[in-house]
Amino acid sequence: MTMTRLRSILDNDFYKLTMQNAVVKLFPSHIVKYEFINRGEHSFPEGFAENLREAVNAMAELKLTKEEKIFMSRTCPYIDLPYLDFLEGYRYDPSEVHIEQSDTELKVTVEGLWYRTILWEVPLLSLISELHYEMNHLERNSNE
User: Fold this and answer.
1) Ramachandran angles phi, psi of 41, nearest 5°
2) Which of 25, 90, 96, 131 has the highest CB neighbour number within 10 Å of its CB?
3) How many CB atoms are closer than 10 A to CB 52?
């Protein structure tokens, strides 16, 4: 059982939020599919997929808080209110994420409406990275 999880719906790349704003308006019915590419050829320990699934499922609880909405409207005046209203009602749907593990190989795909799935990429990569470090008992190198 893992403790890795995101704390805010804004734990994302700001670019993804601005792109979602555009995709909601311009491509509301486009279906997409994303696939995780293990460029580092990392090995994932037994039980990794289950721990990742648990973290992904927990993301369904994230929502834009009133405080975050006020912060966004004040600091990002170029993002329109209808999008902030949309984001306030948005919830991650874990059923859009498919996770499989075979031995030490991990396969993760995300599929669904583009405006819904666009926010998955950065959090998923973050969760995979953090879980990899956590489950392999690795220490992060210092920035110094």
Assistant:
1) 50, 45
2) 131
3) 24
| Contacts of residue 98, Cβ cutoff 8 Å, sequence gap at least 6 | 107, 108, 109, 110, 111
Q: Cβ contacts of residue 46 below 8 Å, gap of 6+?
A: none
Torsion of CA 100, 32, 124, 45, to 10 degrees: 20
- Return the H-helix or E-strand segment holding 101: strand 97-102
Tens of pLDDT, residue by residue over 68-93, are: 999 999 999 999 999 999 999 999 99
Name the packing angle between helices 81-89 and 14-26 (round to 10°).
100
Residue among 40, 32, 8 at smallest CA distance from 114:
32
The phi, psi pair for 51, rounded to 5°, reads: -65, -40
Average pLDDT of the residues in 108-127: 97
| Residues in Cβ contact with 123 at an 8 Å cutoff, skipping those fewer than 6 apart | 6, 11, 12, 59
The predicted model scores a pTM of 0.90
In terms of C-beta density within 10 A (0-12 exposed, 13-18 middle, 19 or more buried), how is residue 94 classed?
Answer: middle
Is the Cβ–Cβ distance between 36 and 132 less than 8 Å? no
